[in-house]
Design goal:
Layout (H helix, E strand, L loop, with lengths): L12 H7 L7 E6 L2 E6 L6 H9 L9 H9 L3
Antiparallel strand pairs: 1-2
């Protein structure tokens, strides 16, 4: 594995899958002597939390709450 001229390294897919690291996951570098560890940043949002945040407030059926309840209950 090599570091690019921009200082980037590709984390192999099997490692990302095993650790649940996805695009947008925030990580920190921990230096211990000559060893560097990549760890998930504390307090960073999970993939599900990011998705829920992006979708929050975007849904609109055009129906009122009462109309939706009537549909769910099968009331005429």
């Amino acid at each position: 594995m090599r570091i690019t001229s921009k200082g980037q390294v590709t984390v192999p897919a099997w490692i990302r899958q095993r650790l649940g690291l996805h695009e947008g996951t925030e990580v920190d570098f921990v230096v211990d002597g000559n060893t560097v560890r990549i760890v998930r940043a504390e307090g960073s949002e999970t993939r599900g939390q990011r998705m829920a945040r992006r979708l929050r407030g975007r849904g609109s059926s055009g129906l009122s709450t009462m109309e939706i309840m009537e549909l769910l209950r099968g009331e005429d």
